[in-house]
Specification:
By secondary structure, the chain is mainly alpha-helical. It has 2 domains: about 170 residues; about 90 residues, no CATH class. Strands 1-2 form a two-stranded antiparallel ribbon. A hairpin with a 2-residue loop joins strand 1 and strand 2.
Length: about 260
Amino acid sequence: MSKAWIRQKKPEFVRDVVRDFCLAAQALEEQFRAFDEYGRLTFEVLRDLLGEENSKGLLWRLKDTAHHLFRNEPEARKVGQFLDWGLGYIFHETIKLKEDAYQQREYGPWFREMQTGDLPQEEHVIGQDLYQVVLQTRQSMEREIKRIRFIMYHCRRLFPIYLAAHRDNMLLARLLFEQNGLVRQVFGAGSEALFATVYADEPERMYILASQSLRLGGWMEDAAQAVEEAVKIGAESDFVLHEKEIVDNWKKRLSV
C-alpha cells in the first residue's frame, strides 16, 4: 500500500479502528466475565477473533489497520504510537490466551482422567508432574486477561485524545451516532469524556456530520433522525439549521 493511498483513506481507517476496537473489546470482555465466573474461556471465540494469515479475524484486522493508520501519519503523534503499540499488544496477548485456553480444553480433561487410571508408579508420578503445568495455565490466563484489560483501559483513555483532531470526520461521526450503544458500553464511564473531548463545545456537530454522511449515502430517514438529535442540543446553530433545511426539503418533496 502506498502512503498516499493510506492518507487518502485516513477517514475510513480512523472509523474502522474505533469500530473494530469497540467490537473486539465487547467480545473479549464477554469472555473475561465468563472466566471470572466459571474459570474458563471459549477457545473457538478466541480463535475466530484472531483468525489466520489467509483469513484474518477481527483482532488481526484491527492490528493491521492500526499499523496503516498510526505509522503513516505526516506528523507522528505519541498518542497514535501508544495506540498502535497497545492494539498490537492486545492481539499478541490474545494469541497466548488462545493457546492456554486450548491447553485447558484439550489436555485438562485428559490429564484428570489419567490420574484415576491404572498406570505404573513411575508413569503416574510423571503424569502428576506434567499435570501441574496444565493446571498453571489458569494462572497464565489470569495474568493475560489482567494485562489485556489494563491495555484496553488505557486505549479508552487514549482514543479521545487522538480523535479530537478528527472532529470533522463524517465517517467517525456516523459511527458514533449509529453505534452509540456499543460505544457507550465499551467506554462506559468514559463515554461522556469521549464525546466532550472530540466535539468540545459543539456536541451537535457529531449529529450533523453523521446526517451529512447518511444523506450522501442515500439514507435520508436515518439522516433525519440525526438532525432531530442535533436540534435538541443546538437548535440555533447555523450548522444545524442548514442541514435541517436540506433534510426538511427532502421531506417536503417526499410528501408531494
